[in-house]
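Listing S7. Sequence submitted for prediction.
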Amino acid sequence: MMVQNPSDLTFVVDSMLGKVAKWLRILGYDTVFTRLTAPSQLARWTGQGRLIVTRGRRWQPGERVILLTADRLEVQMRQLIAHLDLKFDRNRVLTRCPRCNTALQPISRLEVETRVPDAVLTRGYLFRHCPNCGRIYWPGTHSQRILNRLNRFWTDPIQESN
């Protein structure tokens, strides 16, 4: 199913799928994380053009509601990627705050020098920050681990068993 240009996709992820919400944000997608309890919520969110991602069997899958059946994160992400035919876009990765969903903004070394470890400052990283929650991000060693995990979402075969 392809409902719109993948770069324009926005999501609402049900509260039972917190890790999926986090990884969609890491992938650069605007992703609201909330508890879905009433049909009026679905109507409001889909009316805003968002796709609903849930494991709640009470919600009927449809054009804008995606029901994930797997238990494990890797399989859930592969189901979602296959369902939407998402392509990996390296330029989008780590452009949103994984905690609060805000688009990250560049910030100078001078502005972060009292907020990051000295060893990080000496490496010459380009820093970004979340203007909402104040967290600072830089491409440290964890970035490669993140990219490796993202790569597995696309390269591992989708398995039916959980």
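Caption to Listing S7: primary sequence and predicted structure tokens for the chain studied. The chain has two domains: 6-93, 105-150. The mean pLDDT is 90.
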